[in-house]
Write a structure and sequence with these properties.
Layout lengths: L2 H4 L1 E4 L8 H10 L4 E4 L6 H17 L3 E5 L2 H7 L3 E4 L6 H8 L4 E6 L2 H10 L3 E4 L16 H14 L6 E4 L7 H5 L5 E4 L1 H4 L4 H9 L2
Parallel strand pairs: 1-2, 1-8, 2-3, 3-4, 4-5, 5-6, 6-7, 7-8
């Protein structure tokens, strides 16, 4: 994975204004090159249809396409990879199914989570939440800047080198201070989609 692609990850979200594919397209138009399709309530048929459409969009923009949770679908349509939450399939099991040619990311809230995912063969970590967010149910404890500093520091102490992406209620104004903690990148959803012009907002974020 190129570090450049890790700087901003966009996670799709369905809103009153935009569909999942709308949200992905606007992030891509704004310069984001990493899209994660997250459709927790969808049927298998709905998810596959949306995934194929957004995968095609990502290929047009030479962007990385990740699907949340659904390992078998990732393998079936040859998406770039999967993101696994704490209650999803274990990373080691997903690696056995997918092999080495797919990206596998894992959700972490503590250094212990990061260490476990690293040892299990994850390619990157989605670490959060930074603050309270309405786009996710059953939130883990809030990390804040100190939480990221602590996790990054312990990673260095233990020789763990893996991209770590901050997520959870992050706004434009938060990004510089979060990046100063030593994380690799930022994952956003609502901040972009709530903007008057999501494409322009993505461009503004990419220019930081």
């Amino acid at each position: 994975m190129e570090d450049k692609a890790m700087e901003l990850q966009f996670i799709t979200h369905f809103t009153d204004r935009f569909s999942y594919s709308d949200s992905a397209r606007m992030a891509l138009e704004g310069g984001c090159r990493w899209i994660q399709l997250r459709m927790k309530e969808a049927t298998a048929e709905e998810l596959e249809k949306e995934a194929l459409y957004i995968q095609d969009l990502c290929r047009q923009y030479d962007a990385t396409f990740i699907i949340d949770d659904h390992v078998e679908l990732v393998k079936k349509i040859h998406a770039d990879g999967v993101h696994l939450g704490k209650k999803d399939m274990p990373i080691a099991e997903a690696r056995n199914i997918l092999g080495k040619d797919f990206i596998i990311g894992g959700t972490a809230n503590t250094f212990e989570d990061v260490e476990a995912h690293y040892k299990a063969g994850a390619d990157y970590i989605g670490c959060g939440p930074f603050r309270f967010t309405t786009t996710k149910k059953n939130l883990s404890p809030i990390l804040g800047l100190e939480g990221y500093r602590s996790i990054v520091s312990r990673m260095k102490e233990n020789g763990i080198r893996i991209p770590i992406v901050a997520i959870g209620g992050i706004t434009y104004d938060d990004i510089p201070s979060i990046m100063d903690t030593g994380v690799t990148g930022i994952a956003l959803s609502g901040t972009i989609l709530r903007a008057d012009d999501p494409v322009a907002e993505t461009r503004r974020i990419m220019a930081l």
